[in-house]
Here is the input.
Amino acid sequence: MTETIGMIHEDALPGNEADLEPKPAWQPRYRGADKLKDKVAIITGADSGIGRAVAALYAREGADIAVVYLLEEADAAETKRIVEAEGRQAITLKADVGDRHACNRVVAETMKAFGRIDIVVNNAGEQHPDQDITDITEQQLQRTFQTNIFSMFFMVQAARPHLKKGAAIVNCTSVTMYKGSKELLDYSSTKGAITAFTRSLSQNLIGEGIRVNAVAPGPIWTPLNPSGGASQEKLAHFGESTPMGRPGQPNEVAPAFLFLACGDASYMSGQVLHPNGGVIVNG
Here is the structure.
């Protein structure tokens, strides 16, 4: 099942994983243990990169998945195939999550298909490198905030009536929120907003038994950076500045999203996990 929802934004991002060499490693690294048995998860940006790895791991742990994506239909179809190969159900929903109405439709279609929502993973994002703050156009600034943080408000607002006690929300922030990024002024600013949103929403919903946490990845090999999300100079040395001296793989990040979504993290809310190659960020 594929639905097209919202006004799709055409540009080079996020890029096709099918075209990327070497291919990112999305495959789960261990057998499932039914940590998410019969749960339903909405995952934005699930067609590739971290989102695909999270979808694959959630499916291995027993969840059905709403695969939300922007443009890359072939990548989304492959994520759907991966989920189904784990014995779970998936729907693909083509949507611009920066549009409130699109988020409402994503939730409606997920409820129609599965009848429940247990987990919301706000993973979709975009970034545009700029050498100088004066290079950032008003359109780019608005678009980056719309995609990266407005979308989280819209998706949670749409899903909130369907989230019961025990539900989990997991947001994707970034190491750039903590250490900054001279080329990603608008992007890193949205990630700061996401961290504040996570901490504040966790307090807002904790009385309802709904946990809200976040993951702050470091440099991860996904289509986002080589498709225009990083300068060529930065891309040539991508991940080398981390203590581990390399970029991470999506399947090295997905377990953090699993932990925060499942019962193992029942005493955690308002927290951020940091799969970033050893960077100490004190946050």
Notes: The longest helix spans residues 138-159. The two ends are 40 Å apart (CA to CA). The chain has a mean pLDDT of 91. Strands lie at 2-5, 40-44, 64-69, 90-95, 119-122, 168-172, 211-215, 272-273.
